Amino acid sequence: MYAQMVDTGLKQVQGREDLSPEERAFQQRIDEGVKIEAKDWMPDAYRKTLIRQISQHAHSEIVGQLPEGNWVTRAPTLKRKAILLAKIQDEAGHGLYLYSAAETLGVSRDELLAALHSGKAKYSSIFNYPTLSWADMGAIGWLVDGSAIINQIPLCRCSYGPYARAMIRVCKEESFHARQGYDIMMSLCKGTPEQKQMAQDALNRWWWPSLMMFGPSDAESVNSAQSAQWRIKLFSNDELRQKMVDQTVPQADYLGLSIPDPDLKFNEETGHYEFGEIDWSEFYEVLKGNGPCNRERLRTRVQAYDNGAWFRDALVAHADKQKQRSADAPRAA
Ligand code: 3HC
User: Fold this and answer.
1) Which NCBIfam families does this one have (predicted)?
2) Contact residues for 262 (Cβ-Cβ < 8 A; gap 6+)
């Protein structure tokens, strides 16, 4: 895909003949699979797209806690509550890793959060949908974390060192997230007819938004070609989406659930499932802020940030006091 995407000559890929000697040397390192580190020279545009992608990835992790937080107090058993709490806590950690990776590019946490809170920065569209039943906890783990794993595993091999390294632990924990989600779906599908129907209803509501997580079609993706040339993106949006469909349909069959897509059919020749047209108007409406929960999610994040101001101020005051104390301490002779 990498070569094919780069060679499609898509508008935004800088032709190699236009590169300065520094950019040519940089591209050479990328092509040879050398990891770019924070202190290395890099084109401003490389830095900019990494700040964009890594910070939006971090925002997604943090905002992604909200839909599941809705069910912590209503989990059906203490065990499910403990598992859900552990998962949500993991997501907070993923956000922190990713903000730290973004900060290595010379941007501050406050700048990143200000971009989120002002609505300037994006987070994954998937988190703007409501969680209406306990089965949604299963569907999110199975489909949303399942999609995230497919999208994030290649990022462990991306060209920017801090991002690639942050992804390794994230992916290990995402696997637990996906397993616990599928386990919830299995319990419901083995339960009463009403429980199985609840699982089917959750699949019906989360299937298409999960496919949208992979981004617009390759033809519509404005960043993919350049990100591929810089080996930030190792597979295209459509390739990873196809992988998700191929992996998930047999799992739904095993559960005895039906995928809400009348056009879904297995193509013996290609070995892939063909699936129906995604409703891109819904995708772009959600990106514009008109999804079912966009306003509520952002309001909740801004409120949490404002409510935590006293704690941040106390930490800074404490750190300043410590600094003053060591400055005043008599120098060891
Ligand atoms: N939600 C919101 N915005 C999206 C999107 C989505 N699902 N898919 C694409 N977009 C945005 C892009 O950010 C870009 O806008 P921008 O230029 O203003 O940032 C625009 O739509 C065009 O899309 P492109 O395909 O050209 O953009 P990218 O090359 O950045 O590809 C991406 C989009 C595949 C999401 C890529 O950014 C990526 O791989 N990001 C890292 C992984 C990530 O962020 N995953 C989000 C979910 S994290 C998660 O699920 C956590 C788990 O614990 C549950």
Assistant:
1) PA_CoA_Oxy1
2) 276
